[in-house]
Amino acid sequence: MKFTRFSKIQSVSLPMILSPPYKNLIAQAHNGLGKTTCFVLGMLSRVDPNLKSPQALCVCPTRELVVQNLEVLRKMGKYTGITSIPALPTKDWRRGQVVDQVVIGTPGTIGKWFSYKTLSPRDLKILVFVEADHMLADSGFQEDSLKLMRDIRKANRNIQYTTYTYQDIREGATRIALVLKGPGLSTR
């Protein structure tokens, strides 16, 4: 990973993600401008490596994005001792309790893990939606995504929400704000 300078999205969003008081964030930027770096650093910075339970959750619309983002997270967090797991559909949905600190997955699988009590939202500190324009589109994963937010919000009022997209999601942002009903929602 060869970083030389911050992109605009990084210079605006990283201080909001990394510095208390943490703010909810909806960020928009074109592909290749460093959104993944932002949310991966945000997740890694919020995880306590000594606490063996999920603390960061990243929701992606496709299996390919899950694999890609997990790879970036593992490269950037290589020496941190932070563990991660993909939440992807498999033939056997039943599994033991998730103790990995970062979970990256698709909305359907994450929802099933919540319903099976395999994944607990109790210790989550940050929730990231990747490609929120797809996640919140009527034809996309809107219901699954909003249900995840509501379920997590019920179990954990102190979570930070971060959403990254490359398209305009003003309508989706309104839905997110209604679910959150909390202070500190910034749109950039």
Q: What distinguishing features does this structure have?
A:
188 residues, alpha/beta, Rossmann fold, 7-stranded parallel β-sheet, 7 helices, 7 strands, globular, disordered C terminus
Q: Short summary of the structure?
A:
With 188 residues, the protein is of the alpha/beta class. The chain has one domain: Rossmann fold.
Topology:
Elements: H1 8-18, E1 24-28, H2 35-46, E2 56-59, H3 63-76, E3 84-87, E4 102-105, H4 107-115, E5 126-130, H5 132-135, H6 142-155, E6 160-165, H7 170-180, E7 185-187
Helix pairs in contact: 1-2, 2-3, 4-6, 6-7
Percentage of helical residues?
Answer: 25-40%
Find the CATH superfamily: P-loop containing nucleotide triphosphate hydrolases
Number of strands: 7
Q: Kindly provide the name of the CATH class.
A: Alpha Beta
In the residues, how many domains can be counted? 1
Going across the major beta sheet, what is the strand order?
3-4-2-5-6-1-7
Which strand-content bin applies to the residues?
Answer: 15-25%
Alpha carbon gap, first and last residue: 26 Å
Mean pLDDT: 84
Tell me the Rg in angstroms: 15 Å
User: What is the general shape?
Assistant: globular
Elements, N to C (H/E): HEHEHEEHEHHEHE
Q: What is the SS-derived class? A: alpha/beta
Biggest β-sheet strands, sense, barrel: 7 strands, parallel
**CATH architecture annotation:** 3-Layer(aba) Sandwich
Q: What oligomeric state best describes the polypeptide chains here?
A: single chain
CATH topology: Rossmann fold
User: Regions with pLDDT < 50 over 5+ consecutive residues?
Assistant: 183-188
SS field, number of helical segments: 7
